[in-house]
Amino acid sequence: MNDAAPDTSTLAPGVRRIKDAPFCWQHKAALKLIRQTFDDRSFLADALAVYLCFTEIASDEQTETFQRTRREIGERSGVSLRQFDRVLAILISIGLVHCRRNTIPGTKELAASTYTLRPVCATPRTAGARLRQARKLAAGTVIEQSSKNVLEKSGTKPGFETNQVDVSKL
């Protein structure tokens, strides 16, 4: 058996070196932002696992918007539901993910949420503010008073929406 790597020196730039292999891509700037945000926290691995799961599902669906339950993503990423919620809140605060909580009409029961992967923030001014807020959230500190007032008035969390869906169509 020949374990030597194939010669790829003659391939043109941009040509896939592994034929017919499915890939799931992560934006390097997104990974860097996750590492910066979670750098001093013990759950960096969980954050990377959740983001990897998001990008894998988006790749499978061939779209940046998809629906999944928290349990499905938690199981697929190997993260508990409680830890998933912590990581998701921070991924939302740094602008990498948007989440819309879907409910079953006529009840308060939650259906699969709709997640959208967002492009990495390109504006350094807002990126710095988001990173500082995310680090406070990761450290477990209280979000600024103005944000708390908005949350109390709206009854929801920033980055989250609530939408009713007909589960019979799922």
Commentary on this structure:
- The model is unreliable at 141-156 (pLDDT under 50).
- 19% of the residues are buried.
- The protein has six helices and four strands; from the N terminus they run ααβααββααβ.
- Helix 2 (44-61) crosses helix 3.
- Strands 1-3-2-4 form a four-stranded mixed β-sheet.
- By secondary structure, the protein is α+β, with helices and mostly antiparallel strands.
- Helices cover 44% and strands 12% of the residues.
- It has a single domain, classed as Arc Repressor Mutant, subunit A.
- The protein has helices at 28-37, 44-61, 70-77, 81-93, 124-138, 145-154, and strands at 65-68, 97-103, 113-117, 160-164.
In short:
Helix content is 44%, strand content 12%.
Write the layout of secondary structure elements.
Elements: H1 28-37, H2 44-61, E1 65-68, H3 70-77, H4 81-93, E2 97-103, E3 113-117, H5 124-138, H6 145-154, E4 160-164
Parallel strand pairs: 2-4
Antiparallel strand pairs: 1-3, 2-3
Strand content: 5-15%
CATH architecture: Orthogonal Bundle
End-to-end separation in angstroms reads 48 Å
- Total strands: the figure is 4
Order of helices and strands: HHEHHEEHHE
Average the pLDDT over all residues and give the rounded result: 75
What percent of residues adopt helix (DSSP H or I)?
Answer: 40-55%
- List low-pLDDT spans: 141-156
Our Rg estimate from Cα atoms comes to 19 Å
CATH class: Mainly Alpha
Work out the count of structural domains.
Answer: 1
The shape, in one word, is globular
**Total helix count?**
6
Largest sheet: 4 strands, mixed
